[in-house]
Amino acid sequence: MKSIKINFKTFLIPVVAALMIMTSCNKELESFPIPSVEVEPPPTGTTIASYISTNSNYSFLDTALRTTGLYTTLLDKPGSYTLYAPSNDAFKGLIFALFNVPLNSPDDAFIGVLKNPAFKSGLTSILLHHIMTGQLTAAQFPTTFPNVAYLSTLRLDPVLPAFAKLFPSARAPYIYVNNVPITSPDLFSGSNGVIQGVPAIVAPPTGTLKTAIAAQPTLSYFRAAIARADSGAVGLSRFDSLLNYGLTNMTVLAPSDDAFKALIYKLAYGSAIAKGDDAVTADAKANLAVAAGPAFLATNNVTTELIKGVMAYHFLAAESGEPDLPYQPIERIFSVNFSPTPTFIKTLVNNAFAVHPGVLAQATFTGPIVSALTFTGLGSLPPATPYSGTPANAIPVPGIGFDRIGVNGVYYIIDQVLLPQ
Predict the structure, then answer these.
(1) Is the bond leading into 181 cis (omega within 30 degrees of zero)?
(2) For the residues of 133-175, what is the DSSP string, one character each?
(3) What percent helix, strand, coil does the chain show, rounded to 5?
(4) Which residues, other chains included, contact 296 with Cβ-Cβ below 8 Å and sequence gap of 6+?
(5) What is the pLDDT of residues 215-235, one digit of tens each?
(6) What is the Cα–Cα distance from 137 to 185, expressed in whole angstroms?
(7) Nearest to 82 by CA among 33, 36, 135
């Protein structure tokens, strides 16, 4: 596999009194192996497909595999795969979410959906995302941080050899694929691979982070901040272009509209007080600034450099091994990968300040599931309580969790804007 190299210059951050400006990404396209679908002799011994057909807890999966043809073309043939097998309840949850079929409906109602020709293409993509190239037993799940990417058999491009990625990980005492816990580890090992049982669908990405963020109605200020930060930049030197680059792995913290409104109020209030206004006048000016909406971020009330610096602090980064660009946004951190112990994680700010501790992250677990996720910045903005004392909370997707997934990473909506100092 060829390496992906992301090049950044520094970002200009007045709030930390140093220069940091992002430059171009110089990336080579990854070369991925293409799963074989050639006609081959039947495998010797029990295959993954054969085992699924005999397990009543996975009868919906068996129906789905037969409907899409993957039973015979992939999982009943010689090969080396890991199947993350959704249970019947997992398929019920999917069908309820997509087609509003009540969860207490007879099994025939769900089977009817799985057999519907109109759903075949989408169902095929979902299943291919659950089939990973190569065998991985529970004991082999990596404990490394950042995560290790493995290839699913879901092809992202009809021409290029690019496939969606899966991120199996072990965080004692649990193991996961992406943010989904493995509840039936090493369910089966046969002639063409292993099966890991999952209680929920491992959702395939449907677009880049830019696409996902563009569809979020509560992120209009974040999009405006990205646009302002990108002023004067070109190509992949832009945050916007980076969010739309499909061949990397990123973790992005996206403050909500309410979070930006709170920041704008504090900026305007603090500015008015500094100019000698009394509290009543400062409050009135701050409320007018908030009333301006996202357009406030395009005015001279804030500088491009300040917004660019704040945005840099919301892109988590890892050490790249390159002396000129030591920190790059090349890690995909799912909620279950964050530690229950408060842990600092570097950001793009660290390209200018290697000693900066980064963002303080902490996950709260209820069993294998993350029930709360917080991020704390070091910055403060008078007269409010310092952000270093008030963690930003990740806002969950109702009924799903905190992770919002794209082809090129994961992002979290948070309820405060983080400041680096």
Answers:
(1) no
(2) ES---GGG----SSPPPEEEEEES-SSS--EEEE-EEEETTEE
(3) 35, 20, 45
(4) 264, 289, 290, 302
(5) 999 999 999 999 999 998 877
(6) 8
(7) 135
